[in-house]
Write a structure and sequence with these properties.
Transcription Termination Factor Rho, Rna-binding Domain, Chain A, Domain 1, Jelly Rolls, 4 domains, 5-stranded antiparallel beta sheet, 4-stranded antiparallel beta sheet, extended
Length: 500
């Protein structure tokens, strides 16, 4: 028992912070503090509460930290050095029993996946056909920041033929591919693809392409890298020869696992066809959903009599072609299915554009009722669902508002003062200059063209009126006998004012 206690304490001393926190949390102890505090707390736990269950937990964490069976080799291992691991080992970490024979670092017989068991999330655009290498943790060989790990695997003849005979996903790229997937080493839940820092992938001595960073348009926001499966098919030996993959990664405290899958890649058009055939909600079911939304609730103080839905896609601000929404979302607003799939093919986010909640492909559905409405309406941008499941366009209300505005708008006669004469002056100026000698009674006479005449001489002073008459004595006497005209708001010189 003393030897096992010393052995358990040595295991604890080699744990990382995450391992120490897992051990302390499983035993109901606090997992906060620095690493030296966690190590001391774990050592006291082993000394004071030593039990077979505690020893088993320590050994499981130690085996996770230093797995015995792995298809990954140190990059600096000389070629030709045999590698022999055993999936079965005794209770002591120092002793191991020789098991199955290995060839080029890969066991001849299928072995169990290294602990912890990591499950990768399924991707809509990638259908997994076969798993060539189970998720295996990347193990650091030293204390350097950049680490190299290698993997070797073989393709069967049927797999090679499957790749060669597949259709082209894009020009020069097959639809059946061998991809490399990388994620965090975590056995809780399913893991999404996540690249380690400073990643580089070499396949058979040739570096392959790894997706780069998305440029960020927002100031102060770091560019984000799309973590998706890495296609390594162009650099493989499409034969039964052994393929070797080397992963260069940054060792900055986080643990990563890698896997190799044989997949079939779909396009957005192919996913759209699947959506049309497998996930369409009938119009009757949509009406029932609307009635449930608008059903009167006696406990509610607000009664909802209608729900407005826009026929414009929130993604591209265009009219929706194929209405789509997520089954788990509470809203009835839809978005265009074709644009949504195309955007996720380029930049996978799978987020609802209406409420920003997760929108996985498995939960997408086509709204049958809104599809019928889109066919019946062409120039309507918004509709309203009613309590009985029916709908009405909002276009009628807008037209009524426009007519109501027109009916309350007063009508005024139009005055045409924009017809220039031959001399370049306006009709008002010409008529006043001609009728100035005939007296004030002729100022209201219509012009020869039949339009309305605006006499601007009413705003001028009596002195200017006398001067404009050319010094005629008769006009001066008439102007003295007649009452003086009212002054306008502004003083204008009739010879300078020209209206066009």
């Amino acid at each position: 028992m003393a030897a096992e206690l010393v052995e358990a304490m040595n295991m604890v001393k080699s744990f990382r912070v995450s391992d120490l926190q897992t051990l302390l949390a499983s035993m109901g102890r606090s997992k906060s503090g620095l690493k030296q505090d966690l190590v001391g707390r774990a050592l006291r736990l082993v000394q004071t509460e030593y039990s077979p269950e505690l020893l088993k937990s320590v050994r499981q964490l130690y085996e996770t930290r230093f797995p015995k069976a792995s298809g990954w080799l140190a990059a600096r291992r000389p070629e030709g050095v045999p590698v022999s691991y055993s999936p079965h080992h005794n209770t002591s970490p120092r002793g191991a029993v020789q098991g199955a024979d290995y060839l080029n670092g890969v066991p001849k017989a299928p072995q169990a996946a290294p602990a912890p068991e990591v499950k990768l999330v399924s991707l809509p655009f990638y259908q997994t056909l076969e798993i060539l290498l189970q998720p295996t943790e990347l193990i650091a060989q030293n204390n350097e920041k950049l680490q190299d790990s290698q993997c070797v695997f073989d393709l069967t003849q049927s797999q090679v033929e499957q790749i060669r005979n597949s259709n082209e996903h894009r020009p020069g790229i097959k639809s059946v591919q061998v991809v490399l997937r990388i994620c965090y080493t975590d056995s809780v839940g399913v893991q999404e693809d996540q690249y380690p820092p400073n990643i580089a992938v070499k396949v058979n001595q040739s570096y392959c392409h790894v997706p780069g960073y998305y440029p960020s348009n927002k100031p102060g926001v770091e560019p984000r890298r799309p973590c998706r499966p890495i296609n390594i098919t162009p650099w493989l030996h499409l034969s039964t020869a052994t393929n070797r993959v080397t992963v260069t990664w940054g060792n900055f405290g986080k643990r990563y696992s890698v896997a190799v899958h044989l997949v079939r890649v779909f396009t957005s058009a192919e996913l759209f066809n699947q959506l049309q055939h497998c996930s369409v909600e009938s119009a009757d079911r949509c009406r029932e959903r609307i009635k449930d939304k608008l059903r009167f609730d006696p406990e509610s103080e607000i009664a909802t009599t209608g729900l407005r839905v826009s026929l414009i896609c929130p993604l591209v601000k265009m009219r929706i072609g194929v209405p789509c929404r997520v089954l788990t979302c509470a809203h009835l607003q839809c978005f265009d299915a074709v644009f949504f799939l195309q955007m996720n093919e380029k930049k996978p986010t799978w987020t609802c554009p209406v409420c920003d909640k997760p929108a996985p492909f498995e939960l997408l559905t086509i709204d049958g009722l809104l599809s019928e409405i889109l066919k019946e309406t062409e120039d309507v941008e918004e509709i309203e669902y009613l309590t009985d499941g029916s709908w009405r366009p909002i276009r009628d209300d807008k037209e009524k508002d426009r007519e109501r505005e027109r009916s309350h708008t007063p009508e005024y006669p139009l005055v045409d003062i924009c017809i220039p004469e031959a001399n370049g002056h306006s009709p008002a100026h010409s008529s006043t200059s001609q009728t100035g000698k005939s007296g004030s009674g002729s100022t209201s006479a219509p012009s020869a063209a039949g339009g309305a005449v605006v006499d601007l001489t009413l705003d001028s002073s009596s002195e200017e009126e006398g001067g404009g008459a050319g010094g005629d004595s008769e006009d001066t006497e008439d102007s003295q006998d007649s009452p003086s005209p009212k002054r306008g708001r502004y003083d204008y010189d009739k010879d300078l004012v020209t209206a066009y």
